[in-house]
Write a structure and sequence with these properties.
By secondary structure, the protein is an alpha/beta fold. It contains 12 helices and 8 strands.
Length: 297
């Protein structure tokens, strides 16, 4: 039995606050990746009144062996009321920043891009001051579908590369490293005013050099924000942890990422894609997009 090190222990959440958030979610019939993917930070985020909403789910069309989201159920048709229910949750929770992600919907011609579009528009109507981050799948390389999401003007477009190229066949067999990089490159080419973001998990057998190479690859396609976190095995049927990476190594990656030009690197054992995502509002103040574009251009 693998014993988690001290630095991976989390404080017990204040369940009264967690219960309030769950009540809103259940009342409106919404899913969160916090719950579906068994995120270790659920208590902290729910205590702060934040959540990463999972649309078009909870059933996924891919079977990534690291992920705890259900892939055995058949995906349901898109719910036309979901965007309005999501917007109402944002209003009730008084969110300054919201993260919207989804399962993979390879069964849909546009990969679900139209539902992202509708959700963004619904939030804009009911809570215009809320900044919006979307964490999207690779859409099977459908760049026209990607452009429909970009046209809805989220502030942040996030797409996770998840791991190093060498481990893709084992960790992300239905994904493609080059396609993920191209998606981020397309975002910068079509909508350079948006902030782009990606995330990787470590502890699956990658080397320091391989992680640094992924970071350089992401900067080469103008990725602005990076998250790096420890992979944790959800159940015995999922991929096992190869290594518990030390906090010192996470700090080293953060320093390297900042040195090569990322605007923000969130790197720690408990970091997840949406962990402390609301900090992007501060980043937008420090690095106004126009100033960043002119500096790069």
């Amino acid at each position: 039995m693998v014993v988690k090190p001290e630095w991976l222990r989390v404080k017990a959440p204040q369940w009264e606050r967690v219960g309030n958030v769950k009540e809103v979610l259940r009342d409106l019939g919404l899913n969160t990746v916090c719950e579906e993917a068994s995120c270790p930070n659920i208590g902290e985020c729910f205590n702060h009144g934040t959540a990463t909403f999972l649309i078009m789910g909870p059933a996924c069309t891919r079977a990534c062996p690291y992920c705890d989201i259900d892939f055995e159920k058949k995906p349901k048709p898109l719910d036309p009321t979901e965007p309005e229910r999501l917007a109402e949750a944002v209003r009730r929770m008084q969110l300054n920043h919201v993260v919207i992600t989804s399962v993979n919907r390879d069964d849909l011609p546009d990969g679900g891009a139209s539902q992202f579009d509708r959700c963004i528009q619904a939030i804009r109507q009911i809570s215009p001051h809320t900044t919006i981050e979307v964490l999207i799948p690779d859409l099977c390389g459908n760049w026209a579908a990607l452009e429909s999401i970009l046209a809805a003007q989220p502030e942040v477009l996030n797409h996770n590369t998840e791991t190093i190229p060498r481990l893709y066949k084992r960790v992300r067999p239905q994904g493609d490293y080059g396609r993920s990089l191209e998606l981020l490159r397309q975002v910068h080419a079509v909508a350079p005013h948006l902030y782009t973001k990606s995330g990787i998990m470590v502890g699956l057998g990658e080397t320091d050099a391989e992680v640094c190479q992924v970071m350089q690859d992401l900067r080469a396609v103008h990725c602005d924000i990076l998250t790096i976190g420890q992979y944790l095995q959800p159940t015995q049927k999922h991929l096992g942890v190869q290594e518990f990476v030390t906090p010192a190594q996470f700090d080293a990656w953060r320093e390297f990422g900042e040195a090569i030009g990322f605007l923000q690197v969130v790197s720690s054992p408990l970091t997840r894609s949406s962990y402390h995502a609301e900090q992007v509002r501060e980043l937008m103040t420090r690095y106004p997009r126009q100033a960043v574009v002119s500096a790069e251009g």
